[in-house]
Specification:
Layout lengths: L8 H21 L13 E5 L3 E7 L8 E6 L2 E8 L18 E8 L10 E5 L2 E7 L29 H9 L6
Antiparallel strand pairs: 1-2, 2-7, 3-4, 4-5, 6-7
Protein backbone atom coordinates (compact mmCIF):
# COMPACT_ATOMS: atom_id res chain seq x y z
CA UNK A 1 0.00 0.00 0.00
CA UNK A 2 1.34 3.40 -0.98
CA UNK A 3 0.80 6.42 1.22
CA UNK A 4 -0.11 9.62 -0.54
CA UNK A 5 0.86 12.76 1.30
CA UNK A 6 -1.37 15.73 0.68
CA UNK A 7 0.07 19.18 1.23
CA UNK A 8 -1.86 21.94 2.84
CA UNK A 9 -3.07 24.68 0.44
CA UNK A 10 -1.99 27.21 3.08
CA UNK A 11 1.62 26.05 2.94
CA UNK A 12 2.19 27.68 -0.45
CA UNK A 13 0.71 30.98 0.78
CA UNK A 14 2.94 31.02 3.83
CA UNK A 15 5.96 30.32 1.65
CA UNK A 16 4.95 33.19 -0.67
CA UNK A 17 4.56 35.52 2.31
CA UNK A 18 8.01 34.61 3.62
CA UNK A 19 9.49 35.24 0.20
CA UNK A 20 7.81 38.66 -0.06
CA UNK A 21 8.98 39.59 3.45
CA UNK A 22 12.54 38.69 2.51
CA UNK A 23 12.27 40.74 -0.70
CA UNK A 24 11.10 43.87 1.11
CA UNK A 25 13.59 43.42 3.93
CA UNK A 26 16.50 43.06 1.52
CA UNK A 27 15.40 46.03 -0.61
CA UNK A 28 14.38 48.59 1.99
CA UNK A 29 15.84 47.59 5.34
CA UNK A 30 19.36 46.80 4.17
CA UNK A 31 20.38 49.08 1.31
CA UNK A 32 23.23 47.80 -0.79
CA UNK A 33 26.47 49.66 -0.14
CA UNK A 34 27.50 49.47 -3.80
CA UNK A 35 24.56 51.66 -4.87
CA UNK A 36 24.68 55.43 -4.31
CA UNK A 37 22.10 56.84 -1.96
CA UNK A 38 18.95 57.57 -3.93
CA UNK A 39 17.80 60.39 -1.69
CA UNK A 40 20.93 62.52 -1.78
CA UNK A 41 21.07 65.04 1.04
CA UNK A 42 18.39 64.57 3.72
CA UNK A 43 16.34 67.76 4.16
CA UNK A 44 13.78 69.25 6.52
CA UNK A 45 11.77 72.07 4.92
CA UNK A 46 9.35 74.12 7.00
CA UNK A 47 7.38 77.30 6.51
CA UNK A 48 7.25 79.83 9.35
CA UNK A 49 5.30 83.10 9.42
CA UNK A 50 8.28 85.04 8.09
CA UNK A 51 10.42 82.59 6.12
CA UNK A 52 10.94 79.25 4.43
CA UNK A 53 13.54 77.30 6.44
CA UNK A 54 15.58 74.50 4.87
CA UNK A 55 17.76 72.30 7.07
CA UNK A 56 20.20 69.91 5.42
CA UNK A 57 22.14 67.20 7.24
CA UNK A 58 25.74 67.21 6.01
CA UNK A 59 27.77 65.22 8.55
CA UNK A 60 31.49 65.16 7.90
CA UNK A 61 31.30 67.99 5.34
CA UNK A 62 33.19 71.23 5.88
CA UNK A 63 31.33 74.52 5.26
CA UNK A 64 33.78 75.51 2.51
CA UNK A 65 32.81 72.35 0.60
CA UNK A 66 29.11 73.31 0.42
CA UNK A 67 27.60 75.27 -2.47
CA UNK A 68 24.10 76.76 -2.41
CA UNK A 69 22.54 78.18 -5.55
CA UNK A 70 19.13 79.37 -6.71
CA UNK A 71 18.24 79.37 -10.39
CA UNK A 72 14.70 80.45 -11.11
CA UNK A 73 12.56 78.66 -8.52
CA UNK A 74 15.01 75.80 -7.92
CA UNK A 75 17.25 75.66 -4.85
CA UNK A 76 20.29 73.40 -5.25
CA UNK A 77 22.53 72.33 -2.38
CA UNK A 78 25.76 70.62 -3.44
CA UNK A 79 28.41 69.23 -1.12
CA UNK A 80 31.64 67.32 -1.30
CA UNK A 81 33.10 65.06 1.35
CA UNK A 82 36.80 64.50 0.96
CA UNK A 83 37.74 60.83 0.99
CA UNK A 84 40.09 60.01 3.81
CA UNK A 85 42.86 57.45 3.63
CA UNK A 86 41.88 53.88 2.85
CA UNK A 87 42.55 51.17 5.37
CA UNK A 88 44.80 48.66 3.62
CA UNK A 89 45.24 46.36 6.61
CA UNK A 90 41.68 45.02 6.54
CA UNK A 91 38.56 45.04 4.44
CA UNK A 92 35.35 46.82 5.29
CA UNK A 93 32.46 44.82 6.69
CA UNK A 94 30.14 47.76 5.98
CA UNK A 95 30.92 50.90 4.08
CA UNK A 96 27.94 53.24 4.37
CA UNK A 97 29.57 56.62 5.05
CA UNK A 98 28.98 58.82 2.05
CA UNK A 99 32.08 60.23 0.40
CA UNK A 100 32.51 62.18 -2.78
CA UNK A 101 30.12 64.71 -4.35
CA UNK A 102 26.36 64.77 -3.85
CA UNK A 103 23.56 67.29 -4.29
CA UNK A 104 19.86 67.90 -3.79
CA UNK A 105 17.50 70.23 -5.66
CA UNK A 106 14.07 71.38 -4.48
CA UNK A 107 11.49 73.69 -6.01
CA UNK A 108 10.87 76.87 -4.02
CA UNK A 109 7.43 78.43 -3.63
CA UNK A 110 6.93 81.61 -5.62
CA UNK A 111 6.32 83.80 -2.57
CA UNK A 112 9.92 83.86 -1.21
CA UNK A 113 12.80 86.31 -1.69
CA UNK A 114 15.76 84.09 -2.58
CA UNK A 115 18.12 87.07 -2.95
CA UNK A 116 17.69 87.86 0.78
CA UNK A 117 18.46 84.32 2.00
CA UNK A 118 20.86 83.67 4.88
CA UNK A 119 22.70 80.45 5.74
CA UNK A 120 24.43 79.06 8.82
CA UNK A 121 26.41 75.84 9.21
CA UNK A 122 26.94 74.27 12.61
CA UNK A 123 27.75 70.70 13.67
CA UNK A 124 27.06 69.28 10.21
CA UNK A 125 23.66 70.97 9.90
CA UNK A 126 23.13 73.60 7.21
CA UNK A 127 20.27 75.97 8.02
CA UNK A 128 19.03 78.16 5.19
CA UNK A 129 16.41 80.84 5.87
CA UNK A 130 14.65 82.40 2.87
CA UNK A 131 12.34 85.29 3.84
CA UNK A 132 8.80 85.43 2.52
CA UNK A 133 7.79 88.25 0.21
CA UNK A 134 5.90 91.02 2.00
CA UNK A 135 2.68 90.25 0.13
CA UNK A 136 2.88 86.62 1.32
CA UNK A 137 3.24 87.41 5.02
CA UNK A 138 0.09 87.22 7.11
CA UNK A 139 -1.21 90.59 8.22
CA UNK A 140 -3.23 91.48 11.26
CA UNK A 141 -6.23 93.65 10.37
CA UNK A 142 -7.71 95.66 13.23
CA UNK A 143 -11.42 96.07 13.46
CA UNK A 144 -12.60 99.57 14.35
CA UNK A 145 -16.11 99.85 15.80
CA UNK A 146 -18.70 101.78 13.79
CA UNK A 147 -21.19 102.16 16.63
CA UNK A 148 -20.80 103.01 20.26
CA UNK A 149 -20.53 99.68 21.96
CA UNK A 150 -18.07 98.33 24.42
CA UNK A 151 -15.27 100.27 22.76
CA UNK A 152 -15.01 104.00 23.40
CA UNK A 153 -15.72 106.20 20.42
CA UNK A 154 -13.33 109.13 19.92
CA UNK A 155 -14.61 112.31 21.56
CA UNK A 156 -15.65 114.83 18.91
CA UNK A 157 -17.55 118.08 19.38
CA UNK A 158 -21.14 117.68 18.43
CA UNK A 159 -21.74 119.21 15.05
CA UNK A 160 -25.07 120.80 15.82
CA UNK A 161 -24.46 122.09 19.36
CA UNK A 162 -23.77 125.73 18.45
CA UNK A 163 -26.55 125.94 15.91
CA UNK A 164 -29.03 124.42 18.36
CA UNK A 165 -28.14 127.03 20.99
CA UNK A 166 -28.44 129.84 18.44
CA UNK A 167 -31.86 128.63 17.28
CA UNK A 168 -33.09 128.44 20.85
CA UNK A 169 -32.04 132.02 21.57
CA UNK A 170 -33.76 133.32 18.49
CA UNK A 171 -30.69 134.31 16.49
CA UNK A 172 -31.05 133.04 12.97
CA UNK A 173 -27.82 134.53 11.73
CA UNK A 174 -29.43 135.68 8.46
CA UNK A 175 -29.11 139.30 7.51
Amino acid sequence: MTLVRRTSPWGDLISLRQTMDRLFEDSFMRPRSSEPAAVGIPLDVLMTQDALVVEAALPGVKPENVEISVLGDTLTISAQSVAEERHEDGGYLYQEVRRGSFSRAVTLPSNVQAEAATATFENGLLRLSIPKAEEAKPRQIRISPLTEGSAEAPSEPKAGADSTDAAASGDSGAA
